[in-house]
Amino acid sequence: MVPVFLSEKDKVVHTKLLLENVKPASINKVPVILAKISNQTPTVFGKLKITSEVLDSDGNTVISKSSNTNMQMAPNSNFNYAISTNDKSIKAGKYILKLEAQSGTRNWNFSRKFTISKKMAARVNKKIVIKRNYSWIWFSLALLIVLLLLALAYWLGRRHNLKK
After folding, report:
1. Among 65, 39, 62, 64, which Cα is nearest to 50's?
2. By the 8 A CB rule, do 20 and 112 touch?
């Protein structure tokens, strides 16, 4: 048996969250932007809601959005918050991440400029699998079959009329 000594203080500990870094990655062959968030205090809290946007360097165009609720944060810990790129490949360039975290009455707002180099984008894109949309091939094939059937019906109709 190991003895445990617990102590308690009336001092309020204000939770301090930090946005440590932002970088592209692939998770399960899906391209994402990872935002490393760390809890710098020895407090645990739940009902954490995180909303984020990745914008172009001008801050005008939204590249990607993400939102999660009912998350929990352990004391003195960090985690990588994944922001989906909606299965689009990672492109080199300059971007802005705007991230807001809420837990109860506490709010944290972060804004971080980050750059994705061509080398970094190529490394991530090499690991991903982009879902291709081939529905246009099936549509074209169906249209071709319909046109061939119409041409055959026209030809048979003219041939039948010529025999009379």
Report:
1. 65
2. no
